[in-house]
Amino acid sequence: MMSAGKQRWWGSESGLRDETAGALQTSVPSGEICTVTPRAVVAALVVIAASVLWDEWMPYYVKGSNISRSHFPFLLLAVLNAPADRGTAFDRKGLAAAVERKEIAYRSSDKLFWEINAPEEVFSIMDTNRIRIGQIGTKHAHATGKFQTMRELNQLYEVVGIVEADEKRQNEMAAHPAYEEANWLTEDQLLSTEGLKVVAVETDVGELVSTAQHCLEAGLHVHLDKPAGPSMSALRRLHATADKAGLTIQMGYMFRYNPGFEFLFKAVDNGWLGSITELNGMIGKLASDSVRIEIGQFPGGGMFELGCHIIDQMVTVLGPPQGVDTFTYRSRPDKDSLADNQLAVFRYPTAAATIRSNHIDPHGRRKFEVIGENGAVVIDPLEPPELQFSLDKPLSEFREGYQTVELEMLDGRYHGDFFDLAKVIQGEKELRWNSAHDLAVHEAILRASEMDID
Predict the structure, then answer these.
(1) If the chain, 454 residues long, is cut into consecutive pieces of 10 residues, what is the mean pLDDT of each piece?
(2) Which is it for strands 341-347 and 352-358: parallel, antiparallel or unpaired?
């Protein structure tokens, strides 16, 4: 009996519309090319015309990126008319019956993604090149979200298993919907899994770096959550191991692929803001008693645990700081010694940057702004991002003064991380944030948190 499943197929926009070649092509995850015959093109055009009328002349593109649901018949016909390569055959009529409906779900950089409901067997036939990935740890605050994301992106990843050394914690998580039917393994079992390429490390903060070291020594790429532990020297050893072996460490700072920050990076890279003179970031939340106990195990407190996310963005924009002045407050001395209200002022040759972390903020305010001689970018709030862009004179499609920039939103907070990681592992690109960047970020985090540098 065939089990139903939902998968996303992906391909380049140029692959969807290849007018110069006189044929429409669609990429499938295996990398095979499906070419539509002229007869199929004519039939598809008729179906499209009818469906567009039915959709009340819905625009071909929505906000410059999405494809109308009217065009699903065309994509479906492309699949149904594609030859089955590698000697693999399947029932196209059965596939057509199984496909319920298609909608554009997500677009990231040059990739289009659409969801199709179909039997799992269809996708196992058509997709044999997924990246084998596993996860170690469930105790990190981002662990559940990362595991869910990897499972959702099953057109790119095959999740082979998850490790939780704490038996009590494993039993608790096994009952959590996010870990339903998860394959629980020991660390040795996971790291020896045939074909495994990458491991997401989601342990307690104190165990992150040592666990990642085990993964690198097993020849595996690593997605490492933040912050990268209390030891600077241990992180240097970790990156030295990765660089020597040609392996990637992708840090889990959660705003790297945020659409607001992606626009900011573009503005800075293209020189739209001119020389940067000021940068300000703030990130807060109202920490519960349990959270205060958890993050209070490190003297850096909230800046170490949460401020690290925007210090990473600061270093992306301005590079390593020349120095830092810190201001730390512990607002609940009768309850604990948590550093819960902190300010760090970073010194740069032509700019000053301030980063605030506040764990007694009842509103959980989060914003980031960069000001240059020619313009400014203000992201407020950070999630979902809302962005104001200001210029001293018109530039391209942007007018003088402040204006709201419409951003294309992601499906989830961590989707961008794992899409990009897949490209890196498959050799399509290098990660933007290299070891020198990550080490500079971590040193800045430790200094801003008033923690020792070993």
Answers:
(1) 36 31 35 49 62 46 38 48 40 37 32 38 52 98 96 96 97 95 97 98 97 98 97 98 98 97 98 98 96 93 97 98 97 94 97 98 97 98 97 96 94 94 96 97 98 95
(2) antiparallel
Q: What is the dihedral of CA 10, 16, 20, 22, to 10 degrees?
A: 120
Q: How many CA atoms are closer than 13 Å to the CA of 329, on its beta-carbon side?
A: 10
For 158: left if phi > 0, alpha if psi spans -120 to 50, otherwise beta; the answer is beta
Tokens, residue 173: 């998580």
Tokens of residue 200, six digits: 């997401």
pTM of the model: 0.73
Q: 343 with 355: CB under 8 angstroms?
A: yes
User: Quick check: 277 and 351 in contact, CB under 8 A?
Assistant: yes
Planar angle of CA 40, 44, 47, nearest 5 degrees: 145
Closest-CA residue to 134 (of 113, 159, 156, 153)? 159
Residue 277: CB atoms within 10 Å: 15
Neighbours of 181 (CB within 10 A): 6
DSSP string covering 287-353, please? Answer: --HHHHHHHTTSTTHHIIIIIHHHHHHHHHHH-S-SEEEEEEE-S-TTT-----EEEEEEE-SS-EE
